[in-house]
Amino acid sequence: MIQSVDRALYILDILKNNPRGLGVTEIAGRLEVAKSTAHRLLASLEEHGYVQKVGKEANYRLGLKFIEMNQVVVENLNVVELARPYLEQLSSATGEIVHLVMLDGYEIVYIDKVDNSSTIRIYSQIGRRAQLHCTGVGKAILAYYDDTRINEFIKNNDFRSYTENTITDGQALLQELKYIRESGISYDKEEHEPGIQCVAAPIKDHQNNVQYAISVTGPLTRMTQEKLKECIPKLKETVNHISRQLGYRFS
Prior knowledge:
With 251 residues, the protein is of the alpha+beta class.
């Protein structure tokens, strides 16, 4: 029984790092078990919603159950409670929507959001996921991966295109990540949703790790180049406050 649980958990770890999914044969190889054993484990995980089959090749990837579980975990995350007053201040100061996201595998998850009075509908809502390469918050986190993880991400990522501005080339992404590390600021210029722009920045913890990021987001009609630049000092002040609360020491 314990061995089966260990194997099932290992499958979830494998799929977490392979967002495009894997077939039964490859999963069995990584587990070093018979294909029938892997299939039985996957069938059980699928029945409970932890994995799902996708695509013509019927590859397995993480299932929707994790969104439900993630919402429960998020409700108990100290960082959400800690960051909330700063998010509200930032939204009030900029007049725009502010997001807090966390890294989960090769995706980001929206874990808090402060709305403004705008009637503009934006994709995000708490619990939703998005890819790293096409969002300001995603790139803000990805930029602080080590080189090995960045290269692994580029190799495994499908670079799905959401708009005509989405980065779909690994070398172009590397150049942008270099800029983000140098400036501490990331942009989403209609890369995920047409007509929506944002400026984002990473949150660092006591180990100098980046698991969270914040963005200021709004419609193109308001989030002009001038407005984006105006938001930067307020955004940096916000992430610095939260980073200090998480134990990050500024040199």
